[in-house]
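Homework-ish question, so no full write-ups if that breaks the rules, but can someone show me the predicted structure for this set?
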Amino acid sequence: MKDSITYRLPFAVMLVLGVFMMVQYYIPASPVVSARDMLLQWKQPLNGFIILLAIGGVAAVHVRKVWKQQKRWGYSVVTLVSMFAMIAAGMVGGMEEGSVFSDWFKYLISPIEATMFSLLAFFVASAAFRAFRARSTAATILLVSAAVVMLALIPSVANHIPIIAQLSDFILKYPNTAAKRAILIGISLGAISVALKTIFGVDRTLLERSR
Amino acid sequence: MKLSVALQKLNALDRRWIFIGVFVAVAVPFFIPVSFVAEPTPTTLTFDRALGEALNRNQPIVLDVDFGPQTMAEMEPLLQAVLHRVFQSKRPVILLTFMTESAAPLRTVLARMEQTYQLRYGQDYVFLGYASAYAYTMHGLGTSFGNYFHADDRGTPIEKLPLMKNVHSLRDVSAVVNIASNSFPKFWIQYAVTPFDIDFLAGTTAVQAAEYFPFLQTGQLKGLLGGGRAAAEYETLLLRSGVLTRRGDATRGLGSQSLALLVILAFIAIGNVGWLAARRAGRTS
Amino acid sequence: MDWFDESRLAHLLALLGFAAAFFYFIWKGRRGTQLYIRPIDALARMDDAVGRAAEMGRPLLFAPGLGSLTDPVTVAALAILSRVAHNGARLFTRTLVPNYEPLTWPVAQEVVRQSYLRAGHPDDFDPDDVVYLTSRNFTYAAATAGMMMREKTATNFFVGHFYSESLILAETGAATGALQIAGTDSVEQIPFFITTCDATMIGEEVFAASALVSDDPVSRSVVKAGDLCKVIILGIIAAGLAAAILLDWGPAGALGQKLAGILSAFRQGDWL
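A: Not a homework solution, just the prediction itself:
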């Protein structure tokens, strides 16, 4: 089985394309650039198929729920009706300003999503309430830094007590940036090693399992 | 004794009280206007200087706008301020987006700008519309616009747009500005700015801004505006330089933001008092 | 025709250096050399967290982030999912996997299916436990938070790339009393996870954890390649720091200038 072409082909495709995309970065010659451009353009139509997969996925789960009358199947009906109504509105009436699709987007989806986003203000407050306790020296430093940065964001504080603004600027620019940069370096190295593992077929677990 | 018991209760305050506190803090300034002025910080001044330099180079700039309805309250004032600055300078602008839902609100904003500054579409600005596969397109624009955008948002082939006559790739623009609520500035840096050595500026949400400070120091990012607060600072700057004539939405939002921060700080203090009381009670018992 | 962009020489050398370390450690791994890797707290707690859910008789929830399959962190998250789902299946505990990316969804489904198979209970797998929800992040957050509330998940895992919805997910989980383990490469979301979760894998710990959960010694040894490169990067940073200090320090100014010259020439490829 492991010698079969169908087993080896995906790894071969991945190896060739992965190595090509790595190497092209260093070669400005026009045949290489146009080959790269062609590959990049192939990716675009793939997105259309991904949308179909998504619609199929949502429909399959919820139709099954309604069919079997599972718990809370009424919500599945709402989901299915909303999804297909939105698709139909876009396909029939277009998506221009003033169309049904655009209005539904503007007056239904936008406020609902904006509401979800604004929940963050409440959740930040409750998370900060629980997390910022002077339990230890490190926790106290965290608490004080957070307080300074928050105070600096209030204009009347920042304008009247310049030291707060300067301290906040220092915290953001130096300790914060140093830590972020260290994390970023680690992430990048980790990401490169996962990428190399995938390209060179060292870690085949995911591909093998999904076959 | 009673006081200590009451204080201990604060340690595990029901989070609904916190929610009520934040709601009141955000809502009050809508009814009782509190006026604040956000003094521009060095970061905001650097953004304006870098944008000014790019605009002076006599080449078009690319403005990529990527935010949806969720973050509109935070991002739209920022976009407006940047657009005023750009259109006032009379330099050509190429707009595009990698998020489908950004297109409609952007068209509305552009229609307003067109009236305010008497802009001619196709010459002063173009909107290339939406492109999918952002990372690939960002990288691809380094060598060609035409391969990724065949027509603009109105369906005009891009070779028929006067503004695009001399713009073949990102090498023909003076800077890319990305106003985004997602990770797109990072992708721009990875896929276009570093490989093709392009001047790049970004406007992001406040949460995201902290991630981009390292790039600001390395020069991969020439300027950064982070969230509503930075937008308010930019509005102050533009008011002072005469680009804006009246204060914008970001400055108006400062009241809610400031009061909410004070309330959060108060709750943090309350939590610590409760925690200390609980710890002391634990010790004595 | 130009066949090599010289300005990218330093970049190429860095990549070749990393690749050399990568293959060297693969070779060592294949020879069966045992390499020490620092234990990761969140990983150690993962198995207990699954056990807790089994004791409580409630399901697990694993959110593999909002990244696509092209994001290395998503690949790492799916490897960790495989371990979580396998442990869950052994203890007859369901693993709910809400997906944001249509392409990640079938792969996640297959990973969980295989985990049930390896645990010896293929019939217990319910494909509806691994669902595609939506590709809008706050809608995803609402749907996933709803799942936590309705199913009363005992343990929540958030591993992968996240945006601002991270706090909505983790704070809802904290409110339901679930034990929570997170891991992300989204630098700006790490503070939110740290304040709301019981254990958090910071950045590269996710990649290291994904290698550690695999039984393959070769895969584990690759973590060492990153460590070696980090030591080299630290050396370069130290050299830069030394150059900056020496430049401002009268008697050693010339030495500092030389060091700075070498570093910047290397960066620009001038020394070729």
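Now go work out the reasoning yourself. Hint: Residues 6-35+222-268 of chain C form one domain.
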